[in-house]
Amino acid sequence: MKMPQPITSLVAAPHIVIDSKVLCDKPQMAALVTQIFALWALLERELGVLLIRLLGAEAVPSHAIFAVLQTQSLQEKAIVAAARSVMPPDEFAIFSAVMDVVGGVKKTRNKLAHWNWARCEGHPELLLLGDPRRLKQRDERIAAFFQGLDESDGVNLLETWTLIQFDEDAFLAYRASDLEREVRDLTEADRLMFLYGIYLDPSFSVAQAKNLAGPAVTRQDVRERMLQDMLEMRLFKDALDRVKSRVQST
Question: Is the full-model pTM beyond 0.85?
């Protein structure tokens, strides 16, 4: 299987325990998770300068507005709006494919950052991540139940035990191989963002070629080479095919 699966797809009647220290005895998986966070930080830096490459360094008001947007989602919407305003359709398709790749590789990073970490008893090879929205529903249900108790009646232990059980389908199970794949994809996405930055603004590459006294290189030469390198990347090629399919279907 290519994606992390609900724990119930791998283990019948899993015994789930919320555990923030689940990786303390799994150094290989802990190192992979660290790489995922570090690689995403590199990608965020690239996204931060993308607006300059799209609008130019002189678009001071636009950059000031972007700087005060607090959430990743709002910043990405601002970048997409800026790209749509300045790009012809073929260029916007390339941009959309790049952003599609970025959107794909951030999903596991976001789960690692915002979902609840847990373990499955008897399966130390797994890291479980619990959907916080569904865990919140469980917690609210428990809180409402206890607030409604009549203290004089005592507690129905069977009812309480049933109530506090986790929704097992709310947990995804990750193996080391799943995290290794995420690291590979993030590494490829980081390389893609680097190439796309040069594609948008090849000025440094052109100037560098002049300094090296080699054959004359034009901006178009650099852009074509960058695009060819990007098309050799599986994530980008697949994303561009999806973008073109969506355009054709509208």
Answer: yes
